[in-house]
## 1
Amino acid sequence: MQRIAIIGSSGSGKSTLALQLHTMLQLPVHHLDQYNWLPGWQARSYEEFAQAHTNLCTQQQWIIEGIYTRTFEERIQYADTVIFLDLPRTICLWRILKRTIRYYNKPTPSSAVGCPERFDLKFLNYVWNFNYLYKKEIVNLLEKNRINKTIFIFNNETSVATFLQSLKKRADQNNRLLNFTFLQ
């Protein structure tokens, strides 16, 4: 059984990392945006989303990427491994701007059906303030679960690349993560 939760600000690389891990480990990937948004960027009711989230979490194997703080604690309870992409907001904003230009008015690989990429100042403000609003809560929850989870916190792109290189060397024939330690 392997359950990997990837969290972090928008633009931190969650979707990209999830797809890279999927390729290496052959675990199913779930992008939470696809469960939260209906066509035209209409949010599902919290109850619908929370039920879909619980259904995902109770599956035997998965990679779930997304933050959605209201369901974050449940996801962490089910996860074996948590990866927090704590990249600087300038990098996250730069990636979002590049993504917006590349996919403007088109879907991204992880977007919900009927939700094309768009320019949204409110969203950019959310990303700019993400650490101020959520980082303390995230770190506290990770610290609380540190004993019974494998937790990685990556602060830069180089550490993510090093992790992926290490994983390629340390994955066994059954596609399981081996011998990881807490990184900070």
## 2
Amino acid sequence: MADLPEGYKSIPEEVSKKAKAFFERAKTVAGTGNYEYAIEMYLQGLALDPEAIDAHTAMRSVAMIRKGNGGKPMGMKDKWGLPKVAKDDFKQAMLNAEKQLAYDPGNMDLMVQVLVNAQKAGCYDTVMWIGPILFQTNANMAEKKQDYSKFQTLKEVYSAIQNFSGAIEALAAARRAKPEDMDIAQELKDLSARNAIKAGNYEAGDFRKSMRDAEGQHKRLLDDMDVRTTDVLNPLILDAEKAYAEAPTDPGRLARLIELLRKTEQLEHENRAIEILDQKYKETRAYKYKHQIGQINISQMSRQERAYREQAAANPNDPQIAREYKMFLRERAEAELQFYKETAEAYPTENVAKYEMGRRLFQLGRFSEAIPVFQQSRQDPKYRAQSGVLLGRSFLEAQFPDEAVDTLLQAIADYPVKGDEKSIDMHYWYARALEEKHEPQTALKTYSQVAQWNFNYRDVQQRIKRLRTPQPNPAPATP
């Protein structure tokens, strides 16, 4: 078992049994509506066993009921009557703060007092109970009202008890509350590194148990957090490389190594993953390895596209950048089309590949080729709506307006929601198809419906105005 953090204090079993008598009495009294006396009974039990999380939770429930029934915070006279706190008697300081919190359960300053004194008293289970309450209360505040210092206090207390995952979460929230603080990014990196050394599955109510198997729990924690910093991932990659070298035929070890290499989102590591997968493909001819290579390539192109887009946005009047961006988009669509074609051939029942293949054909303006692909992918309920719209648009672009109208009308009928983004898009393109079919009145009515849902959608205002403007009668033919 991993070492417990310094200062942690366990409660003897015989003491916990004595405390339970007070908790049972508190539960009975609370049932009669005597909430203040119930709170007092809980506190007397917690004085014996301050780590009884069920009692902390039950007392807070009583506090919330009391508040709902009009209960007021403690007055100055009641505060003066609290037990005196001797120097370094952090447990009593914690209990005094918790009694005040029971009378004012939304007070974050009192939550902080409970948290800090619980940590100093060695009551780490209590820290893990009150910490999430403080975090959530602060996080639920309007963004401008969130208290940066509360998140910082949580980070410091969690770090002190070696709950680095909690510290990271609190510091990340602090960064959102105060994004201009540039020191937080480095501190997050440092905490991630410390978390890589020692972490646990900190569950309120069982702190000692949470410290078992810290190394294994840490690795699972990193997976859950989706940490991508190289300082954290590099040691894991080295371990995974070693494990894979020891058993290169083990699919689990291979999958773990590839996953870690991809998480870095760095070319060096991604190219290492491609190298391993390519070797496996050559050895086995199993398409799944080639498929994973394609997925990595698509991720790389997505990052390139973001860079091009940002460059184009920063230089809107540079025609050279615009041309390069447009050229890249076409090359990307062609590369992705090839990948999804191969995937659809290797996995004939995989409709996501067919849908994505159709999308790339549509992007490339190959509408006649896209039509049969979308006809297949719309058979899958997951892609029926998207495929139906793009199929109708493909018919429209290929100059089959009758087929476009029928297809888009069917897509509208099949889609159960009215007025959301997908529904609006369907109706807009249905109206466009109606225009092409020379049915202006039906098109106008449909455009009007789109405008009632979203007045600023595309060019719907201009189309409505144009269709409502009387058209001049054609001049009579000259005899």
## 3
Amino acid sequence: MRQNSISQGSAAEIIHYFNAEELSGEETFGEIVLEILASRKNINRKAICQALLSRLNQATSVEQTQHYQHLISLVLTD
């Protein structure tokens, strides 16, 4: 039988791998989608914005802050 879910360990390993390098917007969105799926929540604009805002609050550099602000603006514009 095929398992259609991602274990918390697998999601954490994927996130750790991508955090080792500077992420593009697509990679960051991919990470966020994986996190949302792992938590079994619906993927929607609100969930993505919440995840981005959480990351923005934890940003440790100006580059990260700018990166997350840019992604939030992409999500909120049509």
## 4
Amino acid sequence: MPTATMTSKGQITIPKEVRDELGLLPGTKVTFTIDEHRRCVLSPVRISARSVRGILKREGRPAVTLEEMDEALREIPIR
């Protein structure tokens, strides 16, 4: 079981094994939930596509087609 030590500033480095299992990358936001047994559950924050709708829209630029989106997604390495 991976362990970590908290610094005097309250910082903890998440062990690589845990980061890899959860797909945590630099800049990933996480939530901490305390359950009824006072256990802490760390979870990556997942955003919905609906929440980012339109943030990249620029006036005068054509919309991207679904085929172009699919092609871009195929280029993203899968772990």
